[in-house]
Design brief:
Strand content: 15-25%
Structural class: alpha+beta
Strand order of the largest sheet: 1-2
Distance between the termini: 80 Å
Number of strands: 6
Radius of gyration: 29 Å
C-alpha cells in the first residue's frame, strides 16, 4: 500500500491508494506514450479507466456537446435572392480566353 487517498467522482468519496505502476508503453492512434497508472479496484470488473488528463494526452475529446439546455429562441431571417444565376456574369479573363476554355 501507498500513503494517501484518491478522491472519486462523488463529492466526499475517497479510497486508500493501493499503488502505482511503472510507466507503461501505450500505443494509441499512431502515437506512443509512456504513462504510470494508479492501481485501483474498479467496479463491474472493468480492466481499466482513464481520466480527463489521460484523454487529453491521447488526443481524445468530447464533440457534439450542446451549449444550451433549451432551444435558442433567436431566429435569423435569411434573404433569398430570386434572381437567376448567370454563369458568365463574372468572367475570368477576356473573351478570347473564355472562348478557348469553352
Amino acid at each position: 500500500m501507498v500513503n494517501g487517498t484518491i478522491t472519486l467522482g462523488s463529492n466526499g468519496t475517497t479510497v486508500p491508494r493501493i499503488g502505482r505502476t511503472e510507466p507503461l508503453e501505450i500505443h494509441y492512434n499512431g502515437k506512443t506514450h509512456y504513462q504510470a497508472f494508479e492501481v485501483m479496484r474498479l467496479a463491474r470488473n472493468h480492466p481499466m479507466a482513464i481520466g480527463m488528463d489521460m484523454m487529453a494526452l491521447l488526443g481524445i475529446g468530447y464533440i457534439g456537446l450542446g451549449t444550451s439546455w433549451t432551444t435558442p429562441s433567436k431566429q435569423e431571417e435569411v434573404e433569398i435572392d430570386d434572381a437567376p444565376y448567370k454563369p458568365d456574369a463574372a468572367p475570368a479573363g477576356d473573351q478570347k480566353a473564355m472562348d478557348a476554355f469553352i
